[in-house]
Structure formats: C-alpha cells, structure tokens
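Continuing the batch. This is chain 6 of the set; chains 1 through 5 are on the previous pages. Same settings as before, nothing changed between runs. Recording input and output for traceability.
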Amino acid sequence: MILLNAKDVRKGFGAREVLKGVSLTLQTGQRLGLVGVNGCGKTTLLKILAGTDHPDGGVLSYGKGLRVGYMEQNAELAGGATVWSILETVFEPVFKMESKLRALESRMAEPQAANDPARLERLAGEYQRLTDAFEDADGYAWRSSISGMLTGLGFEKGQFDQPAEQLSGGERTRLFLAKLLLEKPDVLLLDEPTNHLDLAALTWLEGYLTTGAGSRLAMIVVSHDRYFLDAVCTDIAELMFGETELYYGNYTRFQQQRAERYEIKQRAYDNQQKEIARQEAIIERFRRYNQEWSIRKAKTREKMLERMERLSRPRDERTARFSFRTRRRTGDDVLMARGLTKSFGDRTLFSGIDLHIRAGERVVLIGPNGAGKTTLLEALLGRAGLDAGSVRMGANVDIGYYDQLQSGLDPDKTALDEVWDRFKRMEPTEVRSALALFLFTGDDVLQKVSTLSGGERGRVALTILMLRRDNFLLLDEPTNHLDMDAREVLEQTLEDFEGTILTISHDRYFINRIADRVLELTKDGLVEYLGNYDDYLAKKNSGAPIDESGAAGITRTELAKRRKRGRAEQERARARKERIAALEETVDGLEKRIAALEERLADSALYDDPGAAADLAKEHRALTIRLAECLEEWEKETVEG
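Output for chain 6:
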C-alpha cells in the first residue's frame, strides 16, 4: 500500500534550484535510503515530506490518517523534565486507558451492577475492549519499553532520572530518537539518525529497525553510514542534480547498479555519438559528389538524424581524486608503547596500555564514546601528557595526523593560504592544483576557513596530509563530514597507501575496507581482533576467548599475504585499465584516420595521380589491419577484466 507519494517536487533558494522535479513513493514496509553528495538537497526534501517546509511546486499525497515522525539532524528536546519523564509522555494514552480500567473495575464491583445483569454485561464488554486496546498499546510493558530503548541507545541507568537539560547535545539527540521510536509513527523520516551513536548503539538500532519492534515501520532515512544503509534499507534513492533515481536493494547493491547503469548510459551515448559522426561524414561525402542521387541520399540521412532521439551525456557528481604517497620507508617496527596510563581527576581513562604497530599494518581503534580513543591517539603523538608509560617511534617514521575537529587550521586564513603557508616552496598554481583534487576550484580557494563547512575543512586538512607525504598516518574519524563518494575515494587511497595506518573510526563500512587489525579500547584495556569489522563482530558474538594468534581463523602472516595479494591485484587491474584506455584512444585515432582516407579515396580527382592513390590505398589497408589488431587486443583485455 502506498503511504506517501511525491511527484515533481521543486524547491529553490534564491537563484539556486535545489530540487528540480523530485518524484518518489514510499510503500508499507519499505525502508528507503536517500543518498547524494553534501548539499544536494536531502535534508530539504525530508523537511518538505515532514511538512516543516513547503515546496515551490509539485504534488504531495499521504495515506488517510498517516502519522509521520520526523527526526532532523541535531534534534533536541526542551529541558525542564527528566530523561524518563520525557519518554513517559509517549504513554499518556495508556495511562488514561489504565485510569478508565480502574474506574470500570470499581463500577463492576458496585451492588447495582451485581443486581443488573444487563448492565454488568455491558460494563464487562467495555472492559474487555479497553483491556485489548491497553495490551495492544503495550500497557503492561511500557516501563520495560522505555528502559530497553534508553539502554539500547547508550544511556546508563543512572541517567534515567537526570534532567534532560543536563545532557550533552548528542545525548539529547539520542533521547529525541528514543521518543520518536516509542511513538511508533506510520512513517519515519530520519536525518542522520546514527550521529552520536557508538558501535553498540548502532548495532542495537539496526536490530530494532530490521528484526525488532520497529521492523514494521516504513521509513526514509538520510545517512552517511553505509553499513547502516546496508543493514536496514530495502531500497536506495539517489538525489542527483535535483532529481531522484530509484535502485532496488541495499547500499552495496545500489553501488553495483549505479556503476552498471552509468556504464550502460555512457556506452549508449558513445555509440550514438559515433553513429551520428559516421552519418554526418557520409552526408558530407554525398554532398561533395554534388549529384542528384547523392544529394537525395544526403537529405534522406539528414531527416533520419533529425528524427533520432538524442541521448544526453551521462552526468556524475564531482568527487575528490587524490592519493597518498610516502617520502621514504620505515623500519619494520613503527610504534612501540608500553604501560600507557591516563587519568583526569578521579577518572581513569586507560591504564597499562601496550601497543606495537608494524610497518604496513592498518590498525583501527574502536570503543564507546568517552572511552579515551582520541586522548590515546594524542598521547602517542606527544600532545597529551601521560601519567605513566612510554612511547617510542621506529626508524624513519614520519607522522601525519588528521584531527577530526581540524583544530590546527587557522580560521582567518583562506584555504589557499592555509595550504601555501605550510609548503612555501610550492608555486601558487601547484597549491591550486592540489586543492582542485579536493574540489576547490576557482574562487573556492579564496574562502576563509571559518566560512567552510565541516566537510570542506576536512578536505583542506586532507590536502595538507597528502602534500606532507608521511609514512605513518594517525587519523581521527577521517570519514566524518565527507559525503559517500569522497569516502569511497579516501578508502581506495588508503588501500593503495604504502605506509602504515592507525585510525579511530565508527564507520563500519570504512573499517571493513581498511582494517587488518581492530583494537577495542575498553575499561580493562585494549582487546585485539585480527581482521576487519565483520571479523571482529563474528569473534565477539561467538563468545570464544580472544587470543593474539588470530581471529576468525586469520593469522598475521596470512593477513600480510592477503594484503600483498590485494595490492598486486589492484596494480594489475590499474595497468589493465590504463591499457584499455590507451587502446580505446588508439582505436579512436585509427578510425578517424581511416575515415579521412576513405573520404580522399572517394574523391575522383585523386586518381589523376595513380602513385598517390596507390600510396593512400596501401596506407588504408595497413591502418585497417592495425585497427583489427587493436580491437582484438581491446576485446581480450575487457573480457579478462
């Protein structure tokens, strides 16, 4: 059943039209992920669907009596009440039913009811109907529902009676989400619901929405958490250039379908352009003959071209293109830390931490919010003082640090000056070229850092990190604020990186692609899991004891071999891709040259010089043979690829 339908929705801000004709439908049980680059209008569309903003045009229709629940980014609840009492308000209808039940019980116990069977039967019927409604509304389980919701979203029991106004911004957002989920609307509109959730809360929320009480809810969700979209969504809608395109399946399936659709559209466009060029060349050749029959044929082909439905060139959003290189190689041992201990007052963040990182490893540090991950990273950098312990770097280690808050950037500098001041020997054009790789072009580079969005500041920081060419990267939540395409590029870049990586991340999709070792920071210290996030999850859920020799059947040696094989495969794939591109360029040149020769050979005046005609015919045969060879090699490379 269709719950919500949007047709040709348009919205602009000043001269900029954000939504240019968006159409989508949400049906019962459908969980639709809405994706697109930052600034494409996803939040604007959700606000319009929620009724908190109005479109400039288009039609919106909703099912009769449909209840829509909307959670915006950084949503907060008003203070003045406790965490528990705010969620209690969801069950006010239940409390009213309970009061009515008590009143009916009293009326049925009155002597008048006992002496009037008809009245007693009427009261009993009303009592039964109200009892059924009470049960359907979780009247007997509302306390456990609230408790389970709060616990699942990461609240400690000691916070249940805490005034909401004392919560942090992230905690208030989680409380808003808890209230929204308990209300159980017919349709959920969620804008970045995974913000401020640690891994445990993310796992709980996915379970609630897919197999738990929320599994029957229809929803549209905007999220940069690709793992979440994979786990939760039944379909994906991509918002691009102000319009939407629907893909069936989760995020991974969407990626595959999008690449396939783009390739099909590009191939169709290229083939049509070649056919148009071929027909135009034939038309031109016929016109040069200047005979009645040739002019007639030229006009026939011109009409055919006029009737042809021209395909538009496939468009794709711009995305960053960059890579990390190193100046030199490190020794086998990159970092050695022993007995690291750090406290703030009476609170001990971590104690007795030992850490050994070897060259080429990709280590991801995870743990709940507030566990001390960033502090540990800063301690390794020497930026945070330790109560005890020692840190030693190996030979030739050059450290590059990515701060998720970008606190090292000067807000009063332009993006150009921020980079140029760190690399004085570079020419301005070189700095501009580096920034262009991260989508800063034209006057974009003259924007002050203070005016940039979080994602833009992150891209400035990544530009600096790229130019430094360090061999040991310490990254604190590097995917925060990046759109999905930029995250994909960053992941590919880090996979190709020849150095060593230690990174903090809550991005499980990122962890799956990058990690060969996961370190979980707990109150008892660091717990090691070899492999990526799925390996960590499998080992954690199995209940098997953790050991240093391996996880999920993987040893350090096997991980190193896998990584080496993976890089070799990537190099072969890259070389094959470059060879295919070179062959396509050669084929294109040969076809153009052959077409030009055919035009000359069709000119009767050429044969006034038999020698020149013979030379051109010989060249034509040679180029035709060369073209066939190139096409055969191209076909072989593409089939093997």
